[in-house]
Amino acid sequence: MTILVTGGAGFIGSNFVFHMLEHHPSDKIVCVDKLTYAGNLSTLRSVMENPAFRFVRADICDRTAICRLFEEEKPDIVVNFAAESHVDRSIEDPGIFLTTNILGTQVLMDACRKYGITRYHQVSTDEVYGDLPLDRPDLFFTEETPIHTSSPYSSSKAGADLLVLAYHRTYGLPVTISRCSNNYGPYHFPEKLIPLMIINALADKPLPVYGEGLNVRDWLYVEDHCRAIDLIIHEGRVGEVYNVGGHNEMRNIDIVKLICEKLGKPESLITHVADRKGHDMRYAIDPTKIHNELGWLPETKFADGIQKTIDWYLANRDWWEEIISGEYQSYYEKMYGERDPLPVG
Ligand code: NAD
Ligand code: TDX
């Protein structure tokens, strides 16, 4: 079987490539990635020489390149990770989010229709459901929760989801969608909360917590997400959406304090800064459907996963030092340089 993985030079896509090569050694994995600021070929170094793996640099919006690739590889399954993924960047500049996340999805599905596939899988997010109030811990996102987005990023992901379901209903394309909560683990791009705090703390730099830091995210170790997608593409029901999450809700401020503690750094590094516009308060996934239908459960407890993640960033300085030495510097200056510190208390 040939599996086309888009966005495989990014955080979750690369972890999925490693997962598939390890667990399905007779399959061929073809990775297509544009190598935007978030894609790193160095991430895939260990598999580049693997005969079961091929890397192709292309934009999923480039219809000609994508059709050529389908003609060459005739993939059986397509798993679409490729996306602009950072909420803060979408607030600054929404356009590329609509292009890549929606139109790129359309191009991939058109190629699937033209050349024929057994499954198109869309990697979506819990952010399509909007947020939950902090004072209702009894509420969770189920697959029936209405789409209700907050940011240009989540709107673009929701738009793509609707298009995927429309291609199923209208053209009978065999699709599945997974909506996962916040992932963490190796190769997480330094702009995101957990790696940013680890990297800043190691350099004794301020730890910029948006607002009071009371926002809650439901954290899942990336390998657990990869296992869920593996199960869905092989055993999931066509036309269905599966929520993926591990009932591991944490407040941002508690995550940052935990990182300080683990690295032996003082909490005085924590700096409360101006809040994200439209900041979602709480995400919390109800994973009952994927558990009941496919037997999926998260395997990595947060205490172990965060330790493994910190250890990985300590052991792989080369990977992130190269990233933060480049254009990331001007991104950081733009996003955080003008963000006013908030009074503590
Ligand atoms: P990421 O930003 O780390 O990686 C995205 C990858 O896509 C990069 O390698 C980038 O080069 C590539 N890419 C971007 N635009 C492209 C284009 N036009 N053509 C080809 N490749 C392109 O993102 P991530 O965190 O790994 O997220 C992967 C997917 O999972 C996204 O679809 C995201 O919405 C979804 N998701 C992420 C999380 C999370 O916590 N990170 C949670 C749920 C869902
Ligand atoms: O510097 C920061 N300070 C801060 O307080 C950053 C980068 C983030 N935060 C807060 C904002 C969020 O409440 O931390 C929380 C997590 O932020 P991100 O890491 O940017 O993730 P989030 O916005 O929750 O979105 C993530 O999960 C869902 C991924 O980036 C998305 O791609 C995914 O769909």
How would you sum up this structure, described in words?
It is a single chain. The chain is α/β, with parallel strands linked by helices and 345 residues long. The chain has a single domain, classed as Rossmann fold, CATH 3.40.50.720. The protein contains twelve helices and 13 strands. The strands form four sheets. It has a seven-stranded parallel beta sheet with strand order 3-2-1-4-5-6-11, sandwiched between helices. A two-stranded parallel ribbon has the order 7-10. Helix 2 runs parallel beside helix 4 and helix 6 runs parallel beside helix 8. The mean pLDDT is 97. It binds nicotinamide-adenine-dinucleotide and thymidine-5'-diphospho-beta-D-xylose. Nicotinamide-adenine-dinucleotide binds next to helix 1, helix 4 and strand 5.
Would you summarize the structure shown here?
The protein is an alpha/beta fold. The protein has helices spanning 11-23, 63-73, 87-92, 95-115, 152-171, 193-202, 222-235, 252-263, 288-294, 302-315, 317-324, 328-337; strands at residues 2-6, 28-33, 53-57, 77-80, 119-125, 175-180, 183-184, 207-210, 216-218, 220-221, 240-244, 249-251, 270-273.
